[in-house]
Amino acid sequence: MAKTSEAIVIRAHGGPEVLRLETVSVGDPGPGQVLLRQEAVSVNFHDVYVRSGAYRTLALPGTPGLEAVGVIEALGEGVSDLAVGQRVAYIDKGYGAYAAARVLDAALAAPVPDGVEPGVATAWFLKGLTAQALVDEVEPVRAGMTVLAQAAAGGVGQLVARMAKLRGATVIGTVGSPEKVAVAKAAGCDHVILYREEDVAARVAELTGGGGVDVAFDAVGKDSFEGSLASLATLGHLVHYGQASGPIPPFDLSRLGARSAKVSRPFLWPYIQPRSKLLSASERLFSAMARGDLPLSLGGRFALAQAADAHAALEARAAGPFVLDC
Q1: Per-residue pLDDT for 1 more than 50?
Q2: 272, 248 contact by CB (below 8 A)
Q3: 135 and 86 in one domain?
Q4: Are 261 and 232 within 8 A, CB to CB?
């Protein structure tokens, strides 16, 4: 029998005001699915782009939201590795997270241990999995390496810096303002460069005695790419995993030859698929959270009905991350 739930529904693209709380039907879980009573939903810039129409990836009317944490209330046929009453986190590229209850593909659900608060778990799940994949698989960070973390006060940047430090690296971070220096230091950076005031490559050369960094993790893109590239040591690796300032322009690949350097452009999804990889990665991440190894906090919590306020805060560049409590 169909049940109902409160959910945020977008019926037209626009500003935060198009995020409306409605009552929607929630069916029973089918084969390979679970029914979730949701506890906390992460609010991401991706959600803003979906709401505004910058991304036309959600059919309207529709419910936005990529990631959340909830408790399983019912199992569909064939679901054997999860249990009723179990808390799980998920990332769903098909959206639908801005809801108090929903049916979810069980293959997306990763168990959350009791020692991790649901809001923190969902706010840092995608960011944490991304950072972990970068430092453990894209370019495995080891003791003795020197790492450049661009935008080290950002969400993923903080985690990259902390995880690299935990693995024994010397970490050089960059930030955009003096106010963010303390954030980067708290995240584990040994040195912090104000990239708007200093020449990043020149400062890196000074800090490394001219040797450069073994790996540069860069999510800024166009504005930082040249500085990251010029900061690499011989055999260095520039990991370009985002483009907050815009896409990098075409460049001559032969420029890498002088240092036998490399550039890569990873995305998270291949590192958490199939399900066995997701479970392994999430277990490592949540264990680190439970131990207190990572610099995690929340910028604000909003009720589900206040999704518009959360979006307005995010677009105003208020310090996040933000979650919706269901």
Answers
A1: no
A2: no
A3: no
A4: yes
